[in-house]
């Protein structure tokens, strides 16, 4: 009887029904098919308890802050700063693209927002300098996934709420992995700059460093406020998110005054994104309730024991599953579906929840630049007109570098955990 449920879910998904409805409806059918219908009465309470988490309040506020900054003209200031810092190197605009993503990550917390903003500005500039459309789009896509790793990160907040893990520790833990990823992308771009003889930015074209730093200060204040306020204990992540919204308004006013239409669009987009995330979270919490009743995590743990994988082997297997899931599912969907099922087994085997969160979120972010879905690839292909599969081929060397960084993060947990421990945010 239970086999009917995934079959119905597949049909509904193929018909184009929203994923939250597919998951929620399939879960209710699964309750009936497994003779657990008596537990449906308590389902609303379970769902509400899952989303009634204080740290989740930070998510819509950070989304709103990113929307306001994106509409406030900060991109040019960040590009100028990156140009002043790395533009004179061989393959300068590729390095500028990556460096701008590092700065932009501290503002938007979203790979999609990064890809959309920079593909509009840096891809045409790189094309004019002699870079191919495919390579310019590939650099933009590959560097955009720094956004979900460096704080503030929407998916780290999401993971923290799912696993009851400190969002402050997750934020600080993401800093070094984000910088390691940027360094790996710099190396790949440097290699191609040497091989393809990519141009430098001429001396007169790169802005002076001091004016560029001063011009970018209002934008750079946002990540400093967020991380500094949390680390110093002045604010919780949720309070920091509220302050970030105010700082975003001030910074955007400094660059380009926000109109009432900009405000309306920012609030509207924040409401839509937040609503869609919470709908998925509600549907998945129902699925998690059924999984707990059916003791699925315990069954997985027993399977791991029988297979003799051990903690390290299970972590490798889990990463392979997440990479495959990231290729075909939205990040938040994959996170909500798989983490409650797979993460408890890893934690029982001795994995650290903060390190595990960074590894999983990094892993799923790679899916944003991997076909067949690749959300960032779709955005960049649409904005720039580059053929999707040509862009997917061009990004492969960068994806390989990102998988190597993922392997390093899995093998060396201290890269993620050292900073939170030094700052007293994690034991």
What labels would you give this structure?
single chain, mainly alpha, 427 residues, 22 helices
Which range best describes the helical content: under 10%, 10-25%, 25-40%, 40-55%, 55-70% or over 70%? Answer: over 70%
SS field, number of helical segments: 22
Secondary-structure class: mainly alpha
**What is the CA-based Rg, rounded?**
22 Å
How many distinct folded domains?
1
Query: Mind summarizing the main beta sheet?
Result: none
Number of strands: 0
- Roughly what is the average pLDDT, rounded to an integer? 80
Q: pLDDT under 50 segments (min length 5)?
A: none
Straight-line N-to-C gap:
47 Å
Strand content: under 5%
Order of helices and strands: HHHHHHHHHHHHHHHHHHHHHH
Q: Give the overall shape, derived from the CA principal axes.
A: globular
Write the layout of secondary structure elements.
Blueprint: H1 4-14, H2 19-33, H3 43-51, H4 58-71, H5 74-86, H6 92-108, H7 111-128, H8 133-144, H9 154-163, H10 167-173, H11 175-196, H12 209-231, H13 237-255, H14 260-293, H15 296-307, H16 310-328, H17 331-348, H18 353-366, H19 375-384, H20 388-394, H21 396-411, H22 414-422
Q: Can you walk through the features of this model?
A:
With 427 residues, this protein is mainly alpha-helical. The protein has one domain. It is 77% helix and 0% strand. The longest helix has 34 residues. It is globular, with a radius of gyration of 22 Å. The N and C termini lie far apart (47 Å). The model has no long low-confidence stretch (mean pLDDT 80).
């Amino acid at each position: 009887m239970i086999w009917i449920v995934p079959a119905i879910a597949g049909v509904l998904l193929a018909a184009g029904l929203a994923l939250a409805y597919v998951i929620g409806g399939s879960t209710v059918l699964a309750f009936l098919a497994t003779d657990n219908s008596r537990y449906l009465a308590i389902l609303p309470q379970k769902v509400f308890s899952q989303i009634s988490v204080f740290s989740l309040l930070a998510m819509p506020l950070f989304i709103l802050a990113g929307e306001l900054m994106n509409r406030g003209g900060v991109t040019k200031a960040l590009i100028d700063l990156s140009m002043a810092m790395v533009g004179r190197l061989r393959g300068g605009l590729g390095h500028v693209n990556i460096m701008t993503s590092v700065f932009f990550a501290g503002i938007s917390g979203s790979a999609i927002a990064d890809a959309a903003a920079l593909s509009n500005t840096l891809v045409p500039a790189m094309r004019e300098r002699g870079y191919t459309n495919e390579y310019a789009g590939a650099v933009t896509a590959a560097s955009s996934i720094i956004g979900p790793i460096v704080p503030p990160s929407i998916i780290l907040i999401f993971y923290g709420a799912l696993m009851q893990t400190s969002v402050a520790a997750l934020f600080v833990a993401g800093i070094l992995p984000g910088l390691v990823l940027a360094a790996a992308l710099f190396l790949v771009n440097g290699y191609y700059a040497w091989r393809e003889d990519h141009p430098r930015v001429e001396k007169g074209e790169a802005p002076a460093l001091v004016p560029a730093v001063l011009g970018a200060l209002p934008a750079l204040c946002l990540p400093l406020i967020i991380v500094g306020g949390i680390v110093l204990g002045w604010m919780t992540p949720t309070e920091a998110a509220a302050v970030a919204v105010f700082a975003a308004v001030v910074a955007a006013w400094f660059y380009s005054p926000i109109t009432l239409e900009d405000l309306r669009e920012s609030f509207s987009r924040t409401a839509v994104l937040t609503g869609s995330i919470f709908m998925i979270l509600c549907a998945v919490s129902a699925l998690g309730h059924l999984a707990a009743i059916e003791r699925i995590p315990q069954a997985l743990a027993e399977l791991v024991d029988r297979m003799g994988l051990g903690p390290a082997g299970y972590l490798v297997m889990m990463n392979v599953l997440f990479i495959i899931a990231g290729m075909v599912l939205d990040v938040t969907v994959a996170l909500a579906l798989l983490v409650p099922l797979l993460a408890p087994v890893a934690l029982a085997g001795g994995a650290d929840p903060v390190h595990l969160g960074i590894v999983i979120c990094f892993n799923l972010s790679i899916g944003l630049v991997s076909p067949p879905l690749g959300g960032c690839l779709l955005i960049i292909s649409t904005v720039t007109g580059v053929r999707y599969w040509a862009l997917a081929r061009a990004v492969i060397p960068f994806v390989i570098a990102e998988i190597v960084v993922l392997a390093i993060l899995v093998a060396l947990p201290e890269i993620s955990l050292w900073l939170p421990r030094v700052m007293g945010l994690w034991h």
